[in-house]
Specification:
Strand order of the largest sheet: 2-3-4-1-5
Helix content: 40-55%
Structural class: alpha/beta
Number of helices: 15
Largest sheet: 5 strands, parallel
Shape: elongated
Order of helices and strands: EHHEHHEHEHEHHHHHHHHH
Number of domains: 2
CATH superfamily of the largest domain: P-loop containing nucleotide triphosphate hydrolases
């Protein structure tokens, strides 16, 4: 067992739950033959109650114990603080209470700023015996290279589309194929977006972008800014940029005579729009959107940011 595992994969694959179940299996005193926790022993009861003495969870205060953004905690910290990392010293120096592993789960690892990451790095470089770090990340390029180099990387792949669609259908999702495509193949994200009210902002974005040169950037920016505010932190600004990026990818695919990947019902509309845009201009727009996504983390003014984003989109159709 390495001292640190880095679970990588796009959002909506269940990486956090996978890490929790893996930790539970290691801490279980009577694990099943497949390595999963029995769910009945003393260690499993502690883990279920969130107070196992050999387990620590590091995540932003704005997240609940289930790794989801909690409504009403918008003002709570969105980052893992350096004080949280420093608090691990006593936990790691004492050693395991039950004679097994001491496990630290960091979710999401990219929520650490440079100072916090450097504080954790010292422990990763010289970990105490029988210590295991589980780092979960959907955006590994935001991690310090030194953090990545100290971990054994475990990619979490996309499930087979047929299996993911069947799981979504079993969960009561209609148009499972459409939602799965929009989510880039991630069933967890597809389930979230398909729930009542969660996909409204996406429908607004699609309807407006489909207008092409007739898009109204200021009106669209106003609608999406309201959706971001009303979501109480559940809809980050970068998700809007992600939606636009996927639309641009489909435009590029259609412009090259290929099938769209994300917006399946709008395939014909996207093909017509792509025919109006010079390929070089479309490529530049996508590269610009990558930089915009980084800016979306901490924009000075969300409304002006969105207006600039969609003014750039309308400029694609300029003669």
């Amino acid at each position: 067992m390495p001292h640190a595992l880095l679970l990588l994969g796009q959002r909506g694959l269940g990486k956090f739950e996978l890490a929790r179940q893996f930790a539970a299996g290691l801490l279980c005193e009577q694990p099943r033959s497949d390595g999963q926790a029995c769910g009945h022993c003393l260690a499993c009861n502690w883990q279920a109650q969130g107070n196992h003495p050999d387990f620590r969870l590091l995540q932003p205060e704005a997240l609940t114990d289930d790794g989801e953004t909690e409504e009403g905690k918008k003002k709570a910290s969105q980052q893992i603080t350096i004080d949280q990392v420093r608090a691990l010293d006593d936990f790691l120096n004492v050693g395991a209470h039950r004679g097994g592993f001491s496990i630290v789960l960091v979710n999401p690892a990219e929520a650490m700023n440079r100072a916090t990451a450097n504080a954790l790095l010292k422990t990763l470089e010289e970990p105490p015996p029988s210590t295991l770090f589980l780092l979960v990340s959907s955006d590994p390029m935001r991690l310090l290279p030194t953090i990545r180099s100290r971990c054994q990387v475990m990619p979490v792949p996309l499930p087979a589309p047929a299996r993911a669609e069947a799981a979504l259908a079993a969960a009561g999702v209609t148009e499972a194929r459409r939602w799965l495509a929009l989510a880039g193949g991630a069933p967890g994200l597809a389930l979230e977006w398909s729930q009542a009210g969660q996909g409204d902002w996406l429908e607004t974005l699609i309807r407006r972008l489909a207008a092409g040169s007739a898009v109204e950037p200021l009106a669209l920016a106003g609608e999406l800014e309201k959706a971001v505010k009303d979501s109480k932190g559940r809809l980050p600004l970068k998700a809007v940029v992600d939606g636009l990026q996927k639309w641009l990818v489909d435009l590029q695919l259609a412009g090259n005579g290929l099938s769209v990947r994300y917006f399946l019902p709008q395939a014909a509309t996207i093909a017509n729009l792509a025919a109006m845009i010079p390929p070089a201009r479309l490529s530049r727009a996508y590269r610009t959107s990558v930089a915009r996504r980084r800016e979306a983390e901490q924009p000075l003014n969300p409304r002006l940011f969105l207006e600039g984003l969609f003014l750039d989109y309308r400029a694609l159709f300029a003669s």
